[in-house]
Amino acid sequence: MKRGFTLIEMLVVLAILALLLTIVSPRFMHMLQRAKETTLRHDLVTMRDAIDKFYNDKNRYPETLDELVERQYLKSVPPDPITERADTWVITLPPNIDEQGSVFDVHSGSALLAEDGTPYALW
Q: Is the whole model's pTM more than 0.85, yes or no?
């Protein structure tokens, strides 16, 4: 007598696997989005801290984010975790036009909304 699985048994197993995947995949996508948001918050804090340290040392703001790397305030300009590119950061100019430099603050270049409903560009 040959031992094996029938077509019905295989279909039942595949249906159970498909059901489990439909339950697990939304949770995975939610956790992936949360990880990106956490990374974005961390990157913004790190870059803003580097801008502040640069200003305290040089008494001016950096001209570009790359200047922070050149002067070793950052190891590299991190990619925006939402857009997944390092060239989409939005730079805010100093509020006082008498201030030297161009990088007062930095924001995400994404037009998307966070899970809490706020735009990433306002973080």
A: no
Per-residue pLDDT band at 99 (split at 50, 70, 90) = confident
* 74-96 tens-digit pLDDT: 999 999 999 999 999 999 999 88
The token duo for 87 is 């060239």
What are the CA-CA distances from residue 53 to residues 28, 104, 112 (Å)? 37, 12, 30
Kindly give, in sequence order, each residue whose CB lies less than 8 Å from that of residue 76, ignoring residues fewer than 6 positions away: 69, 86
79 in Cβ contact with 85 (< 8 Å): yes
Is the separation of the CB atoms in 50 and 67 below 8 Å?
Answer: no
- DSSP-derived secondary structure letter, 68: H
